Amino acid sequence: MTKLAALVFPGFELLDLFGPLELFGSVDADINIAITSGQQGPVGSTQGPRVMTDCLLKEALDAELFLIPGGPGIRNQIRNEDLLGWLNESAKTADMMMSVCTGSALLAAAGLLDGRRATTNKLSFSRVARTGKNTQWIKQTRWVEDGKYWTSSGVSAGMDMALAVIERKFGRDCAKKAAIYAEYDWHNNPDWDPFAEIHGLV
Amino acid sequence: MTKLAALVFPGFELLDLFGPLELFGSVDADINIAITSGQQGPVGSTQGPRVMTDCLLKEALDAELFLIPGGPGIRNQIRNEDLLGWLNESAKTADMMMSVCTGSALLAAAGLLDGRRATTNKLSFSRVARTGKNTQWIKQTRWVEDGKYWTSSGVSAGMDMALAVIERKFGRDCAKKAAIYAEYDWHNNPDWDPFAEIHGLV
């Protein structure tokens, strides 16, 4: 069984979280998904809907896969010392630490992206880059892999990154099946990124 | 303010619900999103994560937009007389009734698709078609519009349908902005559907 812990905090972005979780949750493999946060109970998203916490951060340290969504709430979380400590602890044993959108600001604030390549969403690009001064931020890419760190561009890019992670961990067929099940137009080339130009980053 | 009520039930499909809600929730318009179900408290998805109910079905009757996700749980819901009654009540005043994936089976079971064109996901196509015997089921299409009823193909197709609804209700610019914000590769032509062939339906 593969344990996947997905972080939530007030003001997380709905699709950052649930796009990847749809795909991980549909893979023909034994994956246990747990929503984790700093406190029990419901946690509200940017768009309104609230998700229930399944386990506390301290109970999720043994997960092999971590997923960190972005959203406006990330601005408070990059100063949350408990959370940054948990991320550092989790990173020691995790196979893969994933972020979607501005979620990479949290990995950067924890120092985990120092000396690494990473990306984030287009609209907050310069702000996130300021959080991770020792990171090489890639402007035009759907996602970036550097060691155990997988960071994706904005919102829907998390789904393409998730499929790339599924491919790596469970094989190409598994990823392809999950995409076809979801009737999803998988962009399996990380260089596919028309949005960098649309948002004026390149 | 536009009220959008999104139905949940045990065993709903995560992306069916949260893909469209991400887009509706990011539109530059005053849209209030409420998760509605038959009882208060958390409701579990197929993939595991639980969403909180914001209001009961009877409190959501005045919504202008309704969203019905699919998922394995739909098989129980098509026999849920209270729910079918609520759908009929809601349909009287709603502007648009939307379903994603097998969610259209629920509209069909309520008799709301009688004499109409509709679609559903590929994997459950024949099963859903048996639920709605008086409906013309379209095999190859990303989504179908017939009157106030908008039905989409499987899972991720709900996002393209949501953008088409946003375009209709709030204008092309609004839909385009929401897609670009989400860095989403919008398929704005309902005829785009490679999955009908992949799944052997055509």
How would you sum up this structure, described in words?
The structure is a homodimer of 202-residue chains. Chain A is built from 8 helices and 11 strands. Chain A has a 7-stranded mixed sheet. A two-stranded antiparallel ribbon of chain A has the order 3-4. In chain A, strands 8-9 form a two-stranded parallel ribbon. In chain A, a hairpin with a 2-residue loop joins strand 10 and strand 11. In chain A, helix 1 runs parallel beside helix 6 and helix 6 runs antiparallel to helix 7. The radius of gyration of chain A is 15 Å and the shape is globular. The N and C termini of chain A lie far apart (42 Å). At the A-B interface, helix 1, strand 2 and strand 4 of A face helix 1, strand 2 and strand 4 of B.
Compressed to H and E, one letter per element, the order of chain A equals EHEEEEEHHEHEHEEEHHH
Mean pLDDT level of chain A: 96
CATH homologous superfamily placement of chain A:
Class I glutamine amidotransferase (GATase) domain
The name of the CATH architecture of chain A is 3-Layer(aba) Sandwich
Q: For the largest beta sheet of chain A, what order do the strands appear in spatially? A: 5-2-1-6-7-11-10
Beta-strand percentage range of chain A: 15-25%
Poorly predicted runs of 5 or more residues of chain A: none
How many domains of chain A? The number is 1
- Please give the number of β-strands of chain A: 11
Largest sheet of chain A: 7 strands, mixed
Helix amount of chain A, in percent? 25-40%
Structural class, from helix and strand content of chain A?
alpha/beta
Counted by DSSP, the helix tally of chain A is 8
Give the CATH level 1 class of chain A. Alpha Beta
Instruction: Evaluate the radius of gyration of chain A.
Output: 15 Å
**Overall morphology of chain A:** globular
Tell me the distance between the termini of chain A: 42 Å
Which pair of chains forms the biggest interface, and how many residues does each contribute?
A-B, 46 and 46 residues
